[in-house]
Amino acid sequence: MIKRFIYVLTLSFLICSCQGDSDTQSDSNSSLVTNITELTNAIKEAKPGTTIVLKNGVWKDIQVEFRGKGTKESPITIKPETVGKVTIEGESDLKFGGEFLIVEGLHFKNGFSPSNAVIDFKISNKDAADEIANNCKVTNCVIEDFNKPKRDNSDLWVNFWGRHNELSNCYIAGKTNRGPTVRVNISGIESINNYHQIVNNHFGPRPVKGGPSGETIQLGDSYTSMSPSHTMVANNLFEECNGEVEIISSKTNFNEFKNNVFYKSEGSLVTRHGNYVTIDGNYFIGDGVNENYGGIRIINTGHWVVNNYFYGLKGKSFRSPLAVMNGIPKSPLNRYNQVTDVVVAYNTYVNCSSPWQFGVGTNIAQADVLPKSEIRSARAIRTTVANNIIYNEKGLESIVVENDKADGVMFKNNIVDNQGVKFNDFNGGITEASLTLKKVSDNIMLPTGIPSNVEAYNGFDFNTIENDLFGTSRKDTKSIGAVIGVDVSNPNILDKSKYGTTWFSNEVEAKDPITHTVTKAEDLQTKINEATTGDIIALAEGIYAVNKSLVITKTLTIQSSGNAKAQLVFSGEANMPLFSLESKGKLTVNNLVLKGNASNYAFASLKENMSNHFGLTVSNTEISDFGYVLKAYKESFAERITFENTSIANCENGIELSEETNDKGDYNTEYLTINTCNFNNVKANVIDYYRGGYDESTIGGNLLITNSTFTNCGAKEKNKTLLNHTGIVNVNITKNTFKNNKVQFVSILWGAKNNVASENKITNSGQLKTEENLKMKLMY
Amino acid sequence: MIKRFIYVLTLSFLICSCQGDSDTQSDSNSSLVTNITELTNAIKEAKPGTTIVLKNGVWKDIQVEFRGKGTKESPITIKPETVGKVTIEGESDLKFGGEFLIVEGLHFKNGFSPSNAVIDFKISNKDAADEIANNCKVTNCVIEDFNKPKRDNSDLWVNFWGRHNELSNCYIAGKTNRGPTVRVNISGIESINNYHQIVNNHFGPRPVKGGPSGETIQLGDSYTSMSPSHTMVANNLFEECNGEVEIISSKTNFNEFKNNVFYKSEGSLVTRHGNYVTIDGNYFIGDGVNENYGGIRIINTGHWVVNNYFYGLKGKSFRSPLAVMNGIPKSPLNRYNQVTDVVVAYNTYVNCSSPWQFGVGTNIAQADVLPKSEIRSARAIRTTVANNIIYNEKGLESIVVENDKADGVMFKNNIVDNQGVKFNDFNGGITEASLTLKKVSDNIMLPTGIPSNVEAYNGFDFNTIENDLFGTSRKDTKSIGAVIGVDVSNPNILDKSKYGTTWFSNEVEAKDPITHTVTKAEDLQTKINEATTGDIIALAEGIYAVNKSLVITKTLTIQSSGNAKAQLVFSGEANMPLFSLESKGKLTVNNLVLKGNASNYAFASLKENMSNHFGLTVSNTEISDFGYVLKAYKESFAERITFENTSIANCENGIELSEETNDKGDYNTEYLTINTCNFNNVKANVIDYYRGGYDESTIGGNLLITNSTFTNCGAKEKNKTLLNHTGIVNVNITKNTFKNNKVQFVSILWGAKNNVASENKITNSGQLKTEENLKMKLMY
């Protein structure tokens, strides 16, 4: 349930009045433009110092080529009449070419880019200096839900080229289609040693994409991973950046990640390719529950991970606070180089489930089914882990989890409070101590009580670690951990006014749902349309004859108004769904009877234009006589699909989520949960959930089937398997009953991944088999 | 014939007297030491400013650990009493650990290192700052023929670690064993960003090694090729550095090669791994004949090749003046990355056979026999070739040789005088002009007469190319080519006094050979011993009964004194050679009769201790009744073995050069030439010449068999092949007669390499077959 309340901070008013929009307009270098033609002309005529002011309102379907040459002292600026009052909508984009150009205060929404980027720091590939941007800046802007209609259509929202460009104080959220939100390209000598600044932004929620290519920031790619980039990513807030396992994928050299806050983000900062990255003074804040919040995953050479603070992270393996991967010996360019020459020093870990994992991704056991060039057997070498503090409220079995031996790692002067639980101390490199926590804020608890004889190890070049997490000089102290001392003031890392724009906030005001009662079928769609997101449609007892799809475009609950189940009898034509789940249509159906005509569907996504997610929860409901219970079309995605306490009977097909056959790691839902349901006489596709392509770092789909009964199902299933979940990484089938299903297999589990089954009763229904290794198409 | 004359320059006297050896000794910070114990103690006690003086003489079997901490202003120095008068001999080495340490004026000869390096900038792997060197220097020293006794035993002569170390003004020559002469290691954070200086040295002859690992300088290796090095190689003379195809193998990032002279060196400067190397203002001087003198071979990303001068180079393919290789898509770490983002600008090429080759090393045709990870199909992209001048005395068919398409290369504003012969001008990027040469010196001829409308193309960042080859500023000129204008003074690039030490020269004085006449067998070895290198032993007519090997350790000719052939009848025991060719034993036998006893040998190398090359030329000679005509043992090597106008009859075995079975690319001779010879009844190993291991960049051995007759040979040859030359890259069998040889094959040629046969008459001798692709063991 998302409710949005947009407020303008007093502070931002102050800033605005100081910067003075009206002042600017009266300036002789300033011109107000009202349409794209005027804007284009104004750009053409702009000189150093010119400010082009966009008239307040909606600017639709504009493609802006901002070509010009400002100077450091007198840039050329495009800005709105009033910040936040100019929205860029429809099929629009903005490209920069030239020098010292600034765009500020715009709001991109209700649209998408017709090109490969919303904001591009390059206009064309022509061999000319004014086609690529240098010293250009996008600031104080918002890009929100600016998704291509098709998930597989890839784009970037901010696409860096050139040198010394900046993305600052922006709010960017809601990308669902393929492609990182922000990318820094460095192919071509014009874009190396770029020193771009990505600073002070608020990266708001990016929902789970359901497959790879959903990073929030990607720096380069494997093909340019040998090139020097020197991109700075600093002081940003990453909030619920859940697109995929990598929030930031660093693929070039000499990048710096400083003082960022990663908050409830289901992913990690990953040094995927490239080397010599500095990760200094960042906060990784979890909730002590969610196992998908990650930390820092290390691949390659020469990284320094220092002064970082990790709190309440429950991630393990790929998602550990520190996950050091095994490499592939003599790795191909696009795979995994060995970790060498890494320094992990002066970090603090509080209440993390598995602070340090080494040998992550080792797959030596799969040497028979994978080519040699895929076997990650090269352990980290020449790596130092020193001067860190770990505090565990509840002692862990291992401080260092060795998926493969950490014998190439030197541990020095690390202190752990493990509540007395014994651990491998790596030749004294990790020492037990009794610490206590001092609360600085809700998310920052600093361990105190380091024994006075513990001094920082002085490793090679450690003198270059000049300051601690809070910027205090380390010069005159031998203190370990991220913070020197504990008498520090609250850094207010989650004060959102410190990040993003001066004028936009994603803070939401709590709102109580309104219940809209419906008593006759013809009112249904009207009431649905009237409801706002989060509301409830309550159906009085009775039978509702419906002959057209009910269109759902918001978060809604539809349920019976009393205990007795209202009945929806759907006579729509073949392949038409009773509930059409469109973009942002997140439906909960509760306590209803749904009946079809054997050829139409109960629920379906749109066939196209699913630019945002749908969602479905069905509970306490009786479903019967449909062609499909749920049909998710290609490129549609739901974070969660749940059926519970529901019966499904006499349907041609069941729950169908298998159209992502591109074998690029995509799938249609992150979590499919079937709990305490009863399937009877569902003839095919009883459960069909698919993810294709070998990709060790896509670690989703999740299928849970529990406490359910399947009877007389699968009679028409061509592959003779009742529950199909090919390629889904996490599968748990437990406490179900399978009876008289005419299939060869109940399920074929993928043993090498997290596929398990237990406590199922199987009668006359074929077998439940495990295949250790699944042969999959290599994606790379 | 090498004669050596060591002279001390007047200049060096001046310098010595200024620096004042005796002055130094009288200094209170100076101590004279006479043996290793005193030296060790002196090192222990040394303080900033201390000078330790080694007493003149031979210092044998010393292992020096020079551990200390000097300062920038007051280093600690080890020097000889008199420069050049202290020789380090026997099993000796020198290791540095600490800071600001200098070693100067020493002469390493008559010995070898007992460790993996002669001079090492690291003492041990202990985690301590005084075990690795920083700001240390070796200067004004000589290392000469300091070879391990066995060729396969690898070492380095100068092994860099740490940072800011220097090898300057040294003369280094004669390495024959495995391993680069100088290596810069950067594994470990202590050695990255090292800014080492390799400057003003004279790298004298390094003979052909016969297989890989014979580089003169190697910077890093593939495993550290992602690391920043910043090593400077400048103002060095590379003279006859023929060890292998790579004179310099750059395998790290950001190295600079400036103002070096490559003179008659059979190899190239190769950017083998690593990226962003600058190759600026170097001279590559050939002789207009030798096809082995190379230029610059480019692999990987971001290199700048500017202001270089290429003269009289006849190399092609791998050895072209500019050879741009194809890469392997997604290459494994140790193979070939694609060439991208390279700039080749402002170079001048005079009378080179194939100035520019692209797609070098393409092997798409071998896709069936090689794994995918070996196929070099990725062409250069984003590469600019601009502002270069080419002058060809004789027009070339192609200015750009496209082994694979150069469609990723942009040619701009290049000028060529191709004497009117048409060529592909790449969309006008290469323009014909009529130029004339202006002679600056024997090796420097500058093209003049560039049309006045031709101006330099101003590519991205071209303004960073500040100066031309001679250091003249490019700021106010749009001139193309390596040199601005032609009114320049002779840079005297081959004046050897500009490189290397103040006190040592490898200049040789011409010397006429002396003829030593021998009339009886018992005088033979005595006269051989008396002769100096280059002399002639003349045998009076008659029969010489010899029962012990004649030992050859220098360059000698042994021949009949008149037209009539003297006869050497050898009764030595089985497996004993008549001529024992030891280290540096280069024998010419002319106009003799050599007769054995069927079990002893005519010629053989030593079984071990072949620390330097042998050589053999046999002409106008009759050889018969030997067990082997020539037996080359493992790890022995001859640059040339030639038989001409010679008959070989009734021998159990012929010419045997097949002991390098390690399949690491090694072989026993570079050139085996058989011309106008007559082989009769040689039962096995008639010719057996072997090189094993798939290695695309080892481009030797060379076998020429021409105008010869083989009759009744090979009867006992187990593999039923008369001429065995497995793995030899260049084979030419032409105009020979093969008659009644009981074999299945005369020869099996390797079609994919340079193996050819023509105009041979084959009667009753099996067939001459070509196999396109040979299955070989992968070396990498």
UniProtKB/TrEMBL annotation, chains A, B:
Keywords: Lyase, Signal. Its EC number is 4.2.2.19. The keyword Lyase applies. GO terms for molecular function: chondroitin B lyase activity. PROSITE patterns: PROKAR_LIPOPROTEIN (PS51257). Residues 1-20 form the signal peptide. The keyword rRNA-binding does not apply. Gene3D superfamilies: Single-stranded right-handed beta-helix, Pectin lyase-like. This is Chondroitinase-B.
